[in-house]
Write a structure and sequence with these properties.
The strands form 2 sheets. Strands 5-6-7-3-8-9 form a 6-stranded mixed β-sheet, sandwiched between helices. It is α/β, with parallel strands linked by helices. It contains 7 helices and 9 strands; from the N terminus they run βββαββαααβαβαββα. It has 2 domains: 7-73 and 149-247, P-loop containing nucleotide triphosphate hydrolases (Rossmann fold); 83-148, no CATH class. The protein has helices at residues 48-55, 89-99, 104-117, 133-145, 163-180, 191-197, 231-247; strands spanning 7-17, 23-33, 37-41, 63-67, 74-78, 151-155, 183-188, 200-204, 211-216. The radius of gyration is 18 Å and the shape is globular. Strand 6, helix 5 and strand 7 form a beta-alpha-beta unit. Bound molecules: adenosine-5'-diphosphate. Adenosine-5'-diphosphate binds at residues 18, 20, 22, 24, 42, 44-50, 207.
């Protein structure tokens, strides 16, 4: 099926079987509109990371199609921030633009703007080892922002952070989302995180991963931290959790 630039990502009837015979995904149909933020929750091993690899064209599908009308305009944020230890914060954030041949004044301006967005102005000269886990994650996010991607792929980015830092990062990310309006596919184990960030939450079954339920999360952005204690929010999160338990049996 054809897609328009209004679509950031589209999976149609996607199956993925690895050469060893493991089927990771079965009949996945999913589309992310431009500027839409979708979260995917599912049990460990259900194929969430595989879904992201297929979305980024790092891995081929076995059958079905994956379309990204914006081509290579992709940003990645993983659990491991993968910063270069010998480069200072500014140098790390500039790296993708540097590799893409963006002239120095332009890439420096983009890096400074991205650091401002993630709340790290003033940390430009620090080395990664001087940063906390939350700060390293902010640097990783800033680095991806410098390329102004149409679609962001997040693979459990906050999974290794302590609870307080994790909640703060969720609040920061949705503030940035409100400002930047990029499309996102966000993989997480946390139902609350998925509901807090996304306008739509997709639930996957145990392997082979299929989409077993989809929930709209209609609260406007920017969302206040207290939304997590709102009864309407709790109701949706409860429904997502119930679907997840159902698919995990
Ligand atoms: P999740 O991210 O949901 O934990 P993954 O996408 O990493 O799940 O993996 C889905 C399933 O596919 C798992 O059972 C995993 O062991 C298997 N798998 C992942 N990559 C490969 C591979 N390259 N070859 C064989 N099996 C794989």
């Amino acid at each position: 099926m054809s897609v328009t630039v209004e679509t950031a990502l589209r999976f149609d009837g996607v199956h993925k079987t690895f050469p060893n015979g493991t089927t990771a995904l079965a009949d996945v149909n999913l589309s992310v509109a431009a500027g839409e933020f979708v979260a995917v929750v599912g049990p460990s091993g259900c194929g969430k990371s595989t879904l992201l690899r297929l979305a980024s064209n790092l891995d081929p599908v076995t059958s079905g199609t994956v379309q990204t009308p914006h081509g290579d305009s992709l940003g990645y944020v993983f659990q491991d921030p993968t910063l270069l230890p010998w480069r200072r914060v500014l140098g790390n954030v500039e790296l993708p633009a540097e590799l893409a041949g963006v002239p120095k004044p332009e890439r420096r301006a983009r890096a400074r703007e991205a650091l401002r967005l993630v709340g790290l102005e003033g940390a430009e000269k620090q080395l990664p080892r001087q940063l906390s886990g939350g700060m390293r994650m902010r640097v990783s996010l800033a680095r991806a922002l410098t390329m102004r991607p149409a679609l962001f792929l997040f693979d459990e980015p906050f999974g290794a952070l302590d609870e307080i830092t994790r909640l703060r990062m969720q609040e920061e990310l949705q503030r940035i989302l409100t400002e930047q309006r990029f499309a996102g596919l966000f993989i997480t184990h946390s139902v609350t995180e998925a509901c807090f960030l996304a306008s739509r939450v997709v639930v996957m079954s145990a392997r082979p991963g299929r989409i077993i339920a989809t929930f709209d999360v209609p609260f406007p952005h920017p969302r206040p931290a207290e939304l997590r204690y709102d009864p309407d929010f709790a109701k949706i999160a409860g429904e997502v959790s119930a679907a997840l338990r159902g698919g995990n049996q």
